Please model this.
Amino acid sequence: MSSSTAFVSISDLRKGRQAVSAVIESAAASGCGTSGGSGKASCGSSGGPDDMPADIWDKVKNHPCYSEEAHHHFARMHVAVAPACNIQCNYCNRKYDCSNESRPGVVSQKLTPDQAVKKVLAVASEIPQMTVLGIAGPGDALANPKKTFDTMRELTERAPDIKLCLSTNGLALPEMVDEICKHNIDHVTITINMVDPEIGAKIYPWIFWDHRRITGVEAATILHQQQMKGLEMLTARGVLTKINSVLIPGINDEHLIEVNREVKKRGAFLHNIMPLISEAEHGTVFGLTGQRGPSAQELKAVQDACMGGANLMRHCRQCRADAVGLLGEDRSDEFTLDKIEQMDVVYDLDKRRAYQAQVEAQRQAQHEAKQSALKDVAAGTEADEDISVLVAVATEGQGLVNQHFGHATEFQIYEISRSQALFVGHRRVDLYCQGGYGEDEQLPSIVGAINDCHAVLVSKIGACPRDELMAAGIEPVDAYAHEFIEKAALSWFADYRQRVASGLVTHQPRGDARIRQGAFTSAPEAVA
Amino acid sequence: MALKIISSMCTACSACEPECPNVAIREKGGTFIIDAAKCTECEGHFDAPQCIAVCPVDGCIKKV
Model:
């Protein structure tokens, strides 16, 4: 077998850029391997304190966005105090708001700094594992400096254990770096979609700069210079930076490899490459012009090509600018302004610290249990060809295969080779099982979302979806229920390779998969 | 000579408010309004009206 994978390679992005549907339908793509999976782990901190200097570990260990492992244990919240923006992006329309929808720039309720502080304190006393507060718009945090920094100042005083972060497009960043450092903000996210203004002109119709609206390449040039300068200044001050890039097929897809190189060079800690979300009903320029988002394999191809550059964040859920809770869940409904008014808020620092220490101990125990479980999985020694596959995993957390197929609102995707199982992303899906009955029309969309996977690991699965998955060529696996994900995945893969070796099954490459756009079904408890 | 914000189009993002050299913009009833008595369309201050230049919704701010 010349190639074991059906991944979309960068050269294919360059050549073809076929329509997503065509890619998905052609399960047997042209045999283009990628080097993916051989690089470092998905996130800067998945390993633990051994991977990095102690001071950096301290900054990321309980930050769900900066640590893949932490995001299973610690929660974050965004407060929407910064509605104004100083640039226009073709993928953004801030007028659109729907409570069933989840994507950046969307909020239900704008807050004043006072209201925001109240909300943070309320959430912090209800959810003691909430360790991170971010200001991520819905506009640009630094285009609203007074509101942003008033909120930060008050929180530093009243909730000193909460880490403060902000997101920015970078235009106003250089002039704000001093202020950022004054407020003890040690994580800053900059959205950087290009390092070539010609490309930038296709993404940003205008910027507001020096009392003028500037368009075209001139606008993108200024933005680019400010972004690079701001990044360099933050690095020099020891502020950790995450770079968000929106992958826009045909505009900046392979260019993001260059972006990765440039931001890495300037000290970026993490690079988060996200798929464009562009449904027509969102009313964005890209939505209206029919600019499509990437397929799952197109996204992965670019992410894989960037491995070895800045550390890649693969667990981003592209959350709302007012999200509350663990990544992938949203509890903002529980903390609307009128509900906060009714709450008896007691900010008990000691209690929070005790709780977080417990979470940390639990997480350490899990980490160690996982490591020792993984030791038992002997790497195969037989000399079969070096194949790697993707598997989808249904999990409720704790690093275990512990979710019923029908209860999954997302699947975690692992890339497995003989020696390692590497987390490479997640796919959001509709709930298959609602009220105990499978919804037949939803299954095809789930298959579409994990169509590039060879197997799906679950704690349990009904007979109907089992048959349909098999028919689609995805093996449903419940033999490893409640085992650690990596161990389960490697054990299944060892078994799979044996079956291939004995001729029981023929190893075939898989096709592409769809990235779900737009609507977020809702928090699990709402449909349970 | 003055400008007006079409309230049905205003997203209440507040970007215009701090840009006004005449402090003519304020929030009212969930959106923003321009005090026509104070508005000079930025003449004498800038080349173009600042509120229009920074507003994310094209056509939201018009001459009265």
